[in-house]
Amino acid sequence: MYNILTNNNMLILSILVSTLFYSCNADTTTLKEWEITILDHTTSSSPNRADLNSDGIDDIILGAGADEWQPCTYGVLAINGKNGYILWSAQANNQLVGSPTLKDINKDGVKDVLIGGRSAELMLIDGKSGELLWRFYNKKGKFASREDTLYNFFNGQWVEDQNGDEFDDIIICNGGDAVLPAGVKNRPPGKLFLLSGKDGKILQQILMPDREETYFSPVILGAYPNQKILFGSGGESRKGHLYSIALSDFKKGMVENYTVIDSSQLKGFIAPPIIADMNNDSIADVIINTSEGKTSVYDGNNFQKIWEVTCPDTETYSQPAIGHFTGDDDFLDIFVQYAKGIYPHYNSTVLYLIDGKTGKVIKELNEERFSYVSPLVVDADADGKDEVIWSMVTDTLINDKNVSRFVLKQFDFSNEKVNNLYSKTYCANFASTPHLSLIDKQGNAEIIYITSPAVTSYFPGTTSFQKPKMEMTIHKKQLKFSPNATIKWGNYMGKDMRSHY
Q1: Chain mean pLDDT for the chain
Q2: What is the CB neighbour count within 10 angstroms for residue 164?
């Protein structure tokens, strides 16, 4: 089915492909698979899912943007999970590079959408109607937020009500001046905020303790009321630290009570940590990728280092995969991607499979290209060993010319297999992590992923090349797993985007 939609003079080409129809009415048709292409927009946001229209089928929410520093019609998109039609959209003043964090803040039975991006864009949107509940920054002007020392908002965390207004509140970082080119040493310090979930007002804020920039999405460790905030500083070319501070101390302004978990004199901490029990002591530990090509595990009880692995001459900006991948023990293992080179000049990718008990690298794989995309984890065949699904970019030869190709791969370590689940030429996905979910007890699963046109498979900025056409295609595809399959990590930052395994 081909469908042409027009909205605010913006043409959307929606290509809906189905093998099963329950109705001929476009508004009620349920499709197994569909695609929707949005013209003049692209995305670095990872999709999330929730049933926004109460039809029993999860819908898809993601951020997007037009050219950098330009307003866009489709800053946030909510797409009907049944058929790919747009439920609602929200305008934005710049690219929304964050991913949707969902919570029913207005108590209407439908989850609402918190999402951030460039130019201090941070908004809370009614999930049912698409109505803007609040916007953090309202000043007009292309670089107005820079003048107020506000930069990029990343992914936030909902925490219990901190100011007694009966609304849950938000922990989030702001930083990273996107106007400054890589290598500029004098960069503005990032901030950690506590914001009111009711109206977005600032309840508390601190600068990064080392006065470095930040691109970090904070993570909460522990249970209320003894929660700790994990947050990081630094960038691609700036030193940084991984910090912990008690939420209660931060709320009171006792900012000197932070703890340094890890430090780097070369590059910063950008990818958020994962919280998982790695040493089987029933206490959640901290797994962190450092931009300098290092993966470390810290004991959640005292932040003592359990083990560390370094991949020489590489960098990494994505989360690792955590699961039972190898061996006969009950310890979780790690699969991680490292980019060979120095930002933004990457020429290949190194993949390490790490024994979670010992920190020993037991398998090394090599791929052609690099992306920021983080992995998904599923026990697809219900054999007790997990597989990794990863969105990657490669080359293929067409008419004697190298052409970029998007590939969705599945790594099965116990059977030593690598399968291509889906692929598409002349396109790529450099930053948007797919979303995987089981839809019934027969092992049928859906995966949502995004592709955009690409004229080269190299990471953007690596070479001078023709600018690709600006558009993005959101795909819903079906996968068939064992009826007893379990999804261990189905989307960026895991369940509820709390980064807890």
Answers
A1: 91
A2: 6
Instruction: Give pLDDT, residue 25.
Output: 42
Q: Which amino acid is at 246?
A: A
The sign one gets for the Cα dihedral 151, 269, 155, 159 is: negative
The stretches in the chain having pLDDT less than 50 are 1-26, 464
SS3 387: strand
Q: Which two tokens stand for residue 458?
A: 């190299």
Say which DSSP state 495 is in: G
Q: How many CA atoms lie within 13 A of 475 on its CB side?
A: 21
The token pair that represents 371 in the structure block: 């992306």
Phi-psi region of 400 (alpha: psi -120 to 50; beta: other; left: phi over 0): left
- Residue 344's pLDDT is 82
CA dist 315 and 338 (Å) reads: 6
The 10 Å CB-count burial string (b at 16+, else e) for 122-150 is bbbbbbbebeebbbbbeeeeeeebbeeeb
Q: What is the pLDDT of residue 395?
A: 87
Assess contact for 133 and 112: CB atoms under 8 A: yes
Q: What is the 3-state secondary structure (H, E, C) of 248-296?
A: HHHHHCCHHHCEEEEEECCCCCCCCCEEECCCCCCCCEEEEEECCCEEE
Quick one: which H or E segment has residue 434?
Answer: none
The pLDDT, as a whole number, for residue 430 is 92
Q: Report the b/e string of 165-176 with b at 16+ CB within 10 A.
A: eebbbbbbbbbb
pLDDT (0 to 100) of residue 307:
98
pLDDT (tens digit per residue) in 162-194:
999 999 999 999 999 989 987 788 899 999 999
The reported pLDDT for the residue numbered 28 is 63
The residues with which 132 forms a beta bridge, in sequence order, are 125
Burial of 109 (0-12, 13-18, 19+ CB in 10 A): exposed
Three-state SS sequence of 127-191: CCCCCEEEECCCCCCCCHHHHCCCCEECCCEEECCCCCCCCCEEEEEEECCCCCCCCCCCCCCCE
Q: How many whole angstroms separate alpha carbon 465 and alpha carbon 262? A: 38
Cβ atoms of residues 356 and 332 within 8 Å: yes
